[in-house]
């Protein structure tokens, strides 16, 4: 499972001005990330605006991404939702070559109990042909996957290999790290706290800001994994302001603004998301120019 050590990127889905998928922009972004030294790419996670893509678009984006990557880095497919039966069918039928795992966010909106979350992931694990990475992001889903539930799933299902943990709750992170089975991967799901999470034993990050700054993000994570936390400090602190700006009016609108400034792809998002305000865009442009 060392395929998921280091820097993963929750890649955005570029759109043309008319809202159609921009495959030229996606190809340019993928090559930019690979050249930036990332270890793997997550295609159609929540950052990819998955909720606004139809089934045919998803298949085309997954296939195009795998074809463009061409084995140069590892690949993870984002498949989640709040209808367990539908997610199970999507996971069961996923057959696009080149992918190494599935990242599945905990159900949003329904606010299931811990038993409901457990049963949801149990059904996915039993249906999957690829390893599963859990994704806990209470700020988006409205419910938390507890440390107890995470550890129970990790112990009972060998193909549940890790968790992208974005709760920001270090008490919970500590409990998972203490109680998890050997080999189960803790992955930071929150850019600003990747350094302290790696200090506790996390194996890397699935990053949003890394879309725009893959080399800088990868450098920080690589130093942390080599236990050079002092050497990682400067880079870690340099990313604080741009990361905050990329999220201040929602993701991925912020990081798409940065990508537009870098000439990688446009900043179009699909409703109900909208582009960031002119004020925030100006601040992002000013901040991103510091890295050129």
Automatic annotation (TrEMBL):
Its EC number is 4.3.3.7. Pyruvate binds at residues 47, 206. It comes from the Bacteria. Its main location: cytoplasm. The keyword Calcium does not apply. It is an enzyme of class 4 (lyase). The active site is at 135 (proton donor/acceptor), 164 (schiff-base intermediate with substrate). One of its GO terms (molecular function) is 4-hydroxy-tetrahydrodipicolinate synthase activity. It holds the Pfam family DHDPS. Keywords: Amino-acid biosynthesis, Cytoplasm, Diaminopimelate biosynthesis, Lyase, Lysine biosynthesis, Schiff base. Catalyzes the condensation of (S)-aspartate-beta-semialdehyde [(S)-ASA] and pyruvate to 4-hydroxy-tetrahydrodipicolinate (HTPA). This is 4-hydroxy-tetrahydrodipicolinate synthase. It comes from Mucilaginibacter antarcticus. The lineage of its organism: Bacteria, Pseudomonadati, Bacteroidota, Sphingobacteriia, Sphingobacteriales.
């Amino acid at each position: 499972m060392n395929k998921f050590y280091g820097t993963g990127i929750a890649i955005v889905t570029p759109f043309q001005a008319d809202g159609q998928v921009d495959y030229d922009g996606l190809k340019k972004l993928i090559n930019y990330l690979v050249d930036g030294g990332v270890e793997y790419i997550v295609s159609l996670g929540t950052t990819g605006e998955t909720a606004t893509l139809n089934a045919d678009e998803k298949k085309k984006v997954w296939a195009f991404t795998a074809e463009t990557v061409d084995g140069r880095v590892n690949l993870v497919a984002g498949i989640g939702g709040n209808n367990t039966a539908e997610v199970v069918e999507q996971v069961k039928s996923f057959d696009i070559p080149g992918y190494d795992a599935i990242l599945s966010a905990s159900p949003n909106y329904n606010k299931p109990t811990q038993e409901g979350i457990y049963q949801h992931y149990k059904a996915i694990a039993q249906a999957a042909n690829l390893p599963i990475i859990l994704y806990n992001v209470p700020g988006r889903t409205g419910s938390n996957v507890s440390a107890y539930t995470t550890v129970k799933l990790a112990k009972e299902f060998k193909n549940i290999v890790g968790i992208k943990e974005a709760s920001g709750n270090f008490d919970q992170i500590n409990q998972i790290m203490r109680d998890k089975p050997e080999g189960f991967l803790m992955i930071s799901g929150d850019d600003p706290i990747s350094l302290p999470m790696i200090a506790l034993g996390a194996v890397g990050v699935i990053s949003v800001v890394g879309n725009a700054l893959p080399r800088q993000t990868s450098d920080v994570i690589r130093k942390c994994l080599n236990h050079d936390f002092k050497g990682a400090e400067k880079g870690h602190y340099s990313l604080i302001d741009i990361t905050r700006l990329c999220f201040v009016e929602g993701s991925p609108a912020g990081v798409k603004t940065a990508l537009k400034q870098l000439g990688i792809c446009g900043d179009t998002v699909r409703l109900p998301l909208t582009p960031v305000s002119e004020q925030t865009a100006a601040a992002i442009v000013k901040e991103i120019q510091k890295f050129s």
